[in-house]
Amino acid sequence: MSQEKEMIRSLETDPVGKVFIRYLIPSLVGMLMMSINVVADGIFVGHRLGALALAGINIASPVFSVFFAMSLWLGIGGATLFSKSKGAKDIKQARQIFTHSLILIFVLTLIVAVIAYLLREPLAYALGANQDTLPYALEYMTVLLMYGFIITIQNAFSLFVRNDGNPNLSMISMVVSAVLNIILNYIFLYVLDMSVKGSALATVTATLAGAIVLFAHFLRKDRSLSFVKPYFSWKLALRTLTIGFPSFISEVGLSVFTIGYNVAMVRWAGTAGVAAFSVLNYAHNMMLMLFLGMGSAIQPLISYYRGAKLRLREVQTIRIAVMTAFVSGIVVFAFGLAAANGIVSLFGNFSEDVRALAVNGIRLFFSAYMFMGINFVMMTYFQASEQVKVAVWITLSREIILMVLFLLTLPHILGTSGVWLSIPLSECVVAVCIFIYVRRKNRSLPALQ
């Protein structure tokens, strides 16, 4: 039996729980490495170059977020179609989708980068730069705009490699990028004494190294990924963009969350509230990667089983993923209740009013994780099975519509506690709505054999 047939056999015949774990662990580690990669620049720049330089790269950081969002938008859309074609045993079509997706990502990234580069100074001011921070913001932004296509290609390529049955290599690529980024930041900033340009070059170079690691996948005989003759299809492009759209909205939602909570905290708790939220936000970003990793783990499996028409294995996978997310959420919530003081101390020494706000915030906000993981998993399920409208509704409701609604109303009743509880209530309402929707939908379907 060939390696490719053996890999397909394992997907279709191995215990569903075993297959899920095989994808879950690399996905979680990869997401953790990604979060380390994002914060490394800030840590090195802040310590070496000071507060103004750090403020400059924070102002320019949305450029990285845009490239990352584009890679998810097009990468997940393309990878979903790739796995579905692979499950249907149409390898030729799968390779066409892979080639088409990478070309689409490359071209669109270049278009966005060129426009942003030409308008980089007004863009920097629009993002919050002033005369003091502008030089640092422009220096960092210029490097990202010139080489940002590497970020989108590497992340999208990683998604395709994972969908081609090699989640471990995707994980290794992320580990290499994170470790090399730390090393290069030290060399460029401390040894070569470069400015923030050095930190941006470290990120881009480390990302390129991660992309090169992924090319080892082409040495495998059991791969389905292969470049074919380039072509363009409006129909395929639209389908790719449609399926990946919930992931793009999710990235936008993170920005809405940060802005919404900052504004609400200024209104209800002043500067101390903003400082307390910044502590929680650091912790939240780490927890977020845990649940994003769970969603990422099921996408290749659901897409493949949908293409292979293995409905029973699809349902078993989503049940295991939901239970894993729910149990993990309870554990994280319990950890937040018990270790809130320790979590705050981890990020520095704060005044008593900031500490009290942050501790209370963690204990209230962490209740969201009991529902957040379920919502991430179900959003990914609907996205991977091309039920895009439901996936978009989940994302818009939990991260934008309900959150903003609760932020506008709850603080009038509960004060700052109402601010902290806005996300937990949003997640809870969405989880209940998903449960009702799935129950009603299952009643209308024939029983699984």
Automatic annotation (TrEMBL):
It is a multi-pass membrane protein. It is found in: Cell membrane. The keyword Thylakoid does not apply. Keywords: Antibiotic resistance, Cell membrane, Membrane, Transmembrane, Transmembrane helix, Transport. The chain crosses the membrane at residues 20-40, 52-76, 97-120, 140-160, 172-192, 198-219, 240-262, 282-305, 317-344, 356-378, 390-413, 419-438. CDD domains: MATE_MepA_like. InterPro entries: MATE_fam, MATE_MepA-like, MATE_MepA_subfamily, MdtK-like. It holds the Pfam family MatE. Its main location: membrane. Belongs to the multi antimicrobial extrusion (MATE) (TC 2.A.66.1) family. MepA subfamily. This is Multidrug export protein MepA.
